[in-house]
Amino acid sequence: MRRTNHRNRLWPRARAVNFNVGLWGMNKSDHKHVRWSLIAERIVCGLFAALVLVYAIRGVYVDDFYFPSARMAYRGVHFHGLSAWLMSGAMICLAVFVLFFTYRTTVRHHDKRGYRLFGIWIRIIGLSLAVCGIIVRELVR
Asked: Which residues pair with 67 in a beta bridge?
């Protein structure tokens, strides 16, 4: 049995970290095998983005953008007119960001600064559209 001193108890030996592991614990350097988990992740994110886009377009078409509440006892929030357009724009920015993030995680060589700036700007635009939609709804009401 190995003897340990006071320092080893406080600071255990560091383990080797493998930085070549991608999402879901898959090995990035393995080009021969199909990464089914990444394909499933892309499909799920694509379906989510498509559902968000359809919901945003439906909100503009019907002129009633609806956010359900967390509890069923309360009615939820309805947006009409300009506020519906602004909230739909925010939801479209959400869908674009989800697609962007999915693409960025699967690309091997990418422009890190350009992708980071695009992600920051799409989030800023989406959040500002959502805040403007809430303000317009409260002013019109």
From this structure: 77
